[in-house]
Amino acid sequence: MAERGDSEEREMVAPAVLDSASGVDEEHGELAYVPSKKFTRGDREAVLELRATEDGQIAVLAYSSLALLVEACGERQPWVSLRWAALQELQRRGDADVILWNVEIPKDLR
């Protein structure tokens, strides 16, 4: 099951996170920390955020540590932690073209 953290909402979202699978990304590790929509205790699923890139692709942002997510997205950003294989599956099932790692979001867009 994914861990969750608290913060603000965004407009673009990926499918709800229902479960996770095993797997390791050799470059980034076993877990990915991913921005999500705001949720409350007791919610049974979290919804991942999607972001549009400058070249028109839809991206899932992923971070190799919680500290990097907080630094890049701000302290109020909600998040989930997923195994790498689960993140790849969500990308495949959803509308995301790419997974972007450790990308800093400009403060005015957080």
Question: What are the key terms here?
Answer:
110 residues; single chain; three-stranded antiparallel sheet; three-stranded mixed sheet; alpha+beta; 2 helices
The major beta sheet can be summarized as: 3 strands, antiparallel
Which shape, going by the Cα principal axes? Answer: globular
**Percent of sequence in beta strands:** 25-35%
Question: Helical amount among residues, as a percent range?
Answer: 10-25%
**Cα radius of gyration in angstroms:** 13 Å
| N-to-C order of helices and strands | EEEEEEHEHE
Give the helix/strand class: alpha+beta
CA-to-CA gap between the ends?
A: 26 Å
In total, the number of strands is: 8
Task: Explain what the structure shows.
With 110 residues, the chain is α+β, with helices and mostly antiparallel strands. It has helices at 66-73, 84-93; strands spanning 3-5, 13-17, 31-35, 46-49, 51-52, 58-62, 79-83, 98-101. It is built from two helices and eight strands, in the order ββββββαβαβ. The chain is globular and about 35 Å long.
In summary, what is this structure?
The chain is α+β, with helices and mostly antiparallel strands.
